[in-house]
Design a protein that fits this description.
The structure holds 2 protein chains of 2 kinds. By secondary structure, chain A is mainly alpha-helical. Chain A has helices spanning 5-17, 23-35, 40-53, 56-76, 80-87, 89-96, 104-119, 125-142, 158-178, 187-198, 204-220. Chain A contains 11 helices and no strands. The longest helix of chain A is centred in the first third of the chain and has 21 residues, at 56-76. The mean pLDDT of chain A is 89. Chain B is mainly alpha-helical. In chain B, α2 (50-70) packs across α5 and α4 crosses α6. Chain B is built from 13 helices and 3 strands. In chain B, strands 1-2-3 form a 3-stranded mixed sheet, with helices on one face. The chains are: A mainly alpha, B mainly alpha.
Chain lengths: 222, 329
């Protein structure tokens, strides 16, 4: 049912604020964005606004949500979100790893997310290179003394720390579950080329395995 | 991979064995079956409608491949699912398990676990839903339709696991295709064609009868014939494939292409079954009239799926292990 832009923005922002590391929250949010794709410009702007406003932890969740959003977009054939994310990639990373205190905590995860985007062919190698360069620069900046967390200044609350640890653990688990995934494109082609490049040459171990397999086959006749 | 071993009550009274009564039934896993065993099993299934059953199986393969492709599984996951599926309907009748769609998805689920490409069952079900209803209404993993299907499949999964005797050792031809092709210095196009033929091999009963390296070599041979690459260099014995095994693989694949070409991946490039018929003629000419028979093997029966209600069942991967363990009591 059609929503007006105002309602849609409000609802979408709610979804964004409820994002955590789980794939369900990301999928719900992505499905909403795709259902109201004629409001894509509006909804997308909400993302950028939230990135400015929320905590460092929440920004990481949004970054990972963008990965889900792009994947689902490609799958349904509505590529506008992918174009917008690609175009604003540096700006997004700038917000996820801002030149501010404590931002160092987000660097590693931001880099992983960037890697995922390249591996899944959501962004091109070119986009990846320039975004990576910008990220490395920012990393050098926020590693410096003045950007480290200081005792006197307000830092992450205990609750936030624990939640972040949980979410990192969740992301890690998710990543291990996805490491085998065949990237988009002609799967047979991709797998064959990968196998052609990475399979080791025929060696004595292979012969041992083949002989063993022959022995197992021979047992069937008994 | 399963057969009934004898229903031998084990020795050792409860008094002498502190672990309690020993298992009453042993089921031995059989990674490979002989052609006779397969024929005998097929005959035991009552009231089969041969061509209808074959169509159902092909449909199931399409579902496995489409769903697997949607989920971006590597080919080995789909291959394992197809192998498990065929084994399932060798040892269980379609009368008892009429929903080949459900079985296909259950096999895909088991395969995703054994091949380390884990996906939640609900994700697999959602994927198969989207394939059946492209552009249909969004469905989420919490929907009651999915929940229902999941419950059915979880109980079906048990039957699948028992049928394969919990033996998760499945080897695939793909690595051998690459290794052999490089050793033979084949052109890449030939290896790639062989890779496609290997995909088709999963639609046959070959993986239950022949070793993966034998299948790989057979695929390379057919690819060589199709691309008119000199095949005289292929000496099966040098690749640990007995000549007879090699011939069986090639002949069976050629039969398959002759009978079912439109259902195969090669159909996109080779639409005339005559291509494969002449290959078969050539090969038979070279082999001559003598075809060595394979030993028939022990007689196997359909699975008794109420077995685990009658007593403890012990699934054994091979007799060696069982003997060693028994001696330690």
């Amino acid at each position: 049912m059609p929503l007006d832009a105002f309602e849609a923005r409000l609802t979408f922002i709610e979804y964004l604020r409820r994002l955590n590391a789980s794939i369900q929250s990301a999928t719900k949010c992505a499905q909403f964005a795709l259902r109201y794709q004629d409001l894509s410009e509006d909804l997308y702007s909400c993302i950028l606004e939230e990135l400015d406003k929320t905590s460092l932890n929440a920004r990481i969740n949004i970054l990972y949500f963008l990965e889900t959003l792009c994947e689902n977009s490609i799958r349904t054939g509505f590529e506008d979100y992918v174009d917008m994310v690609t175009r604003d990639l540096s700006e997004i990373l700038d917000k996820v790893v801002p030149p501010a205190q404590g931002a160092l905590a987000n660097v590693a995860l931001a880099r992983k997310a960037l890697d995922n985007l390249k591996r899944k062919s959501i962004i091109t190698s070119e986009n990846y290179e320039s975004a990576e360069a910008m990220l490395s620069e920012r990393e050098k900046l926020v590693s410096q003394e003045e950007f480290q967390m200081k005792k006197e200044l307000p830092s992450f609350s205990k609750e936030e720390i624990l939640r972040r640890m949980e979410e990192d653990r969740e992301r890690h688990k998710r990543m291990r579950e996805n490491i085998w995934v065949i990237p988009p494109g002609d799967a047979m082609q991709i797998e064959f080329e990968n196998a052609w490049e990475t399979t080791s040459s025929l060696d004595e171990d292979d012969y041992d395995m083949m002989r063993e397999e022959n022995a197992i086959l021979e047992q069937a006749s008994r | 991979m399963s057969a009934h071993a004898s229903t031998t009550p084990r020795s050792g009274s409860p008094a002498s064995n502190p672990q309690g009564p020993l298992p009453a039934i042993i089921q031995l896993s059989r990674p490979y079956l002989t052609p006779n065993q397969i024929l005998a099993l097929e005959r035991q299934v009552a009231d089969t409608n041969g061509s209808r059953d074959q169509q159902l199986k092909f449909q199931a393969f399409s579902i496995i491949l489409a769903t697997g492709s949607y989920l971006r599984f590597p080919i080995r996951t789909m291959g394992t699912a197809m192998i498990i599926f065929q084994r399932f309907y060798l040892f269980n009748s379609m009368q008892d398990f009429p929903s080949t769609l459900d079985t296909a998805l259950a096999c895909l689920f088991v395969a995703s676990k054994t091949e380390d490409t884990l996906k939640k069952l609900k994700e697999i079900l959602v994927a198969s839903y989207y394939i059946k209803h492209p552009g249909g209404p969004d469905i989420s993993m919490d929907s009651p339709v999915i929940e229902d299907q999941r419950r059915r499949l979880i109980s079906l999964e048990r039957h699948v696991l028992e049928t394969i005797s919990f033996d998760f050792r499945v080897k695939h031809p793909q690595p051998y295709i690459v290794k052999f092709a490089k050793r033979l210095r084949c052109p890449v196009s030939m290896a790639e064609t062989a890779w496609q033929i290997a995909l088709d091999s999963y639609r046959t009963i070959l993986p239950l009868k022949s070793t993966p390296h034998a299948i790989a070599l057979g695929c390379l041979y057919i690819a060589a014939c199709l691309l008119e690459v000199d095949i005289s260099v292929i000496k099966p014995e040098q690749f640990c494939v007995p000549l007879r095994e090699f011939e069986n693989v090639v002949l069976e694949m050629l039969e398959f292409y002759i009978d079912w070409l439109p259902q195969t991946t090669l159909f996109a490039r080779y639409t005339d079954p005559a291509t494969f018929m002449s290959m078969r003629i050539d090969l038979n000419k070279r082999l001559g009239k003598y075809i060595e028979q394979r030993a028939p093997g022990t007689h196997l029966q359909l699975r008794d799926y109420a077995m685990s209600d009658k007593g403890t069942v012990r699934y054994v991967l091979n007799w060696e292990r069982e003997r060693i363990e028994r001696e330690s009591y």
